[in-house]
Amino acid sequence: MEAIEEQLGPFGNRQVELLCTIPGVARRAAEVLVAETGGDMTKFPTARHLASWAGVCPGNDESAGKRRSGRTRKGSKWLRQTLTESARAAARTKDTYLAAHYARLRVRRGSNRAATAVMHSILIAAWHMLQTGETYTDPGGDYYVRRDPERTTKRLVAQLERLGHTVVLQEAA
Question: When comparing pLDDT for 14 and 46, which is higher?
């Protein structure tokens, strides 16, 4: 444990503290992130380059209107394993954007693909944080509701009508 802190040095310790502000990313996960990426984000021109290098970009294989496997490519197995643990932990957090992101995708795409999407989001956030030095600001668990409240209203009204209720909407005072 002390050897890891010694290897990280004063700059790495600051980076680890920054990364620990992401929901689901604990100290050990942040240390692995810094160790595997080198902590220097100037090697990657954009966050997408980092995600591609790590192998957590969604694949896209479509030809003539037929969709084939969208598997992610191989990257660092230590980084992937750590990001998977962090994504699953973030999915269990309460009232966070990453948990809402996971829950929203899990219904349509399944647990593993939703976890991969959260891994991608964590890595993108890490790139921006290490690039700018700012801490993580969570948009909140109600991000998708705030983004499109009309869509949520329509969905809830339709759900009540399917249950046999008559719904009359009135503007709140």
Answer: 46
